[in-house]
Backbone:
């Protein structure tokens, strides 16, 4: 093996190692961002829920938003919302 090949091989090896480290660092950063986002949601949600308990005007404003944005059966049940109506399946004859 020539010296040029050895240098190139070392550079490629270093590049692969750096690519792996970058991938790991990006994954860690994404995980931290997700934790921060969840914490923010908890804090803001708790504040809004506390205010909704005492503010009828806010409740009237927020209920349609919550109803529209809450789409999973589990979440709707947790919030005491009625289940969403089941979507009708189209038959082959319908266009």
Residues:
């Amino acid at each position: 093996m020539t010296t040029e090949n050895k240098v190139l091989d070392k550079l490629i090896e270093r590049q692969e190692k750096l690519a792996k480290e970058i991938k790991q660092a990006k994954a860690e950063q994404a995980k931290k961002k997700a934790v921060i986002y969840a914490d923010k949601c908890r804090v803001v949600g708790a504040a809004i829920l506390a205010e909704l308990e005492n503010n009828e005007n806010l409740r009237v404003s927020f209920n349609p938003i919550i109803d529209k944005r809450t789409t999973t059966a589990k979440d709707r049940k947790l919030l005491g919302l009625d289940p969403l109506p089941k979507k009708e399946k189209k038959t082959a004859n319908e266009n």
